[in-house]
Write the structure tokens for this entry.
Amino acid sequence: MNAAVRAVVRRGLSAGLEVYGIRRGYEGLLNGEAFPMDLGSVADIIHRGGTILHTARSERFRQAEYQDQAAAWVKAQGLDGLVVIGGEGTFKGMAELCKRGVRAVAVPATIDNDIPHTDYSIGFDTAVNTGVEAVNRLRDTATSHERIFVVETMGRNSGQLALAVGLAGGAESILIPELPIDMKKVCAKLERGIARGKVHSIIVVAEGAAKGFKVAEEIEKCMGTEIRVTVLGHVQRGGTPTAFDRLLASRMGAKAVDALREGYSNVMVGISGTELKLVPLDQVIGAEKPIDMEVYTLAEDLAK
Ligand code: F6P
């Protein structure tokens, strides 16, 4: 997200705009936490994870009276447009502000990559790489000790992250919330592997599909061996962003500023292939981003 903040600030300044940062998202709007940003304010952040602006879950912003208050504050400050960076919850808040006459453009950022109408959201690629790196490391122990490992990734409602980590990490099975879990199939695959001399296996499970420890218990029952579990958790949400994420965030942040200047509002910047596009926010909110079944089937087919 820092790379996106940097792009918004610097593109805005290049265009001769005054740029303000708002700390702590919607909480910051309610508390009047805006401050001017100059070129130096975003120096040395492109390589850092997270956001220098901080973020907050604002419970009160869900209520209409606070949405009114925030919109009135934006107008009173003379802010001509907001760039809102986040996931679906953030976008719902933005839609409320737009209804109240605030102009805003959304930039998708979530490691879950579950936002429809964009191939990627900021943070996903970094999280996938962190997950794959973890699987690589676990594989060393799994091979040496001839063990089965269960790796739990984030993804409360979405299996996009687990699927990418599983396919790129060569996992034997991938369990995701979008598809029913079939433990018999998982165990049968493990047995087939052992029968042909395989000494280790990795099962990737999205936290929203099942708890890693629960999956391990089930496998212990059918395989009769001890299983090791690693829960990646918030480790996946931090760290140096990948070059891909920095490129994406830089392009999307700049595009959001351009879109506001061109008169767009209530839209999200998305990416299709390598092309940036603007998508009306009402097409994004409430829509689903389905799992690519071709990719899932490929993962199954390749992991023997
Ligand atoms: O929405 C992104 C996400 O990383 C989910 O995958 C995860 O379940 C959740 O955030 C964790 O949120 P929190 O930090 O509030 O526990």
Q: What stands out?
A: Residues 87, 110-112, 154-156, 207, 237 surround 6-O-phosphono-beta-D-fructofuranose (CB under 6 Å). The first strand starts at residue 20 and ends at 22.
